[in-house]
Structure formats: C-alpha cells, structure tokens
Amino acid sequence: MSISGITNTALSGMRAQTARVGAIADHFANSSTPGYARLNTSLTSVVSAGVQVVVSPTASDVDPATELTDLIEAEQSYKANAVVFETGADMWEMLMSIKRD
Length: 101
Known about the structure:
Layout: H1 3-30, E1 39-46, E2 50-57, H2 64-100
Antiparallel strand pairs: 1-2
Helix pairs in contact: 1-2
C-alpha cells in the first residue's frame, strides 16, 4: 500500500467515525421524540476506498449507557485514525526531504 493509500484509508476512517458521532448526537437529541427510530451505523471495509459507513433506522430504543459507550469507542477510533494519518503525512514529508537532497 502506498503512503497516499494509507492516509486516504485513515481519512475515510475519520469520516466514518464523524458520521457515527453524528448519529449518536441525534439519538440523544431525539430520544424523547415520539416515533423516533434509533439509527444503526455499520462500518464496512472497502478495498479501494477504506471505510464505508451505512446509517439505517432500527426499531430499538435509545439506551444512554450504550450511546455513551459507543461515543467513547468512536472517539478512540477517530484518534487512532488521526495518528495513522499524521504518521503517513510525516513519512511523506520525510520522503520529500530525501528527494530534495
């Protein structure tokens, strides 16, 4: 995998986690709304595109403990992807400095 592939995969992971956090925020904002359907976010790996997120309504109720746990998991996953992205950017910068010398 190339460095640009690594950074693109990490970027798609950060976008997926952002969508996941958005769904969690939506759950908290609408948990007492009559007829509200909880959104299920599922992440799938796509070889050429990194991570793809699919958001679909479910029939389950909003559980604050589950939502907070999911929020913590999304935060940690976002941070991990950010570290990978930064490492890829650092590697790219190092290669460009070697090329200039």
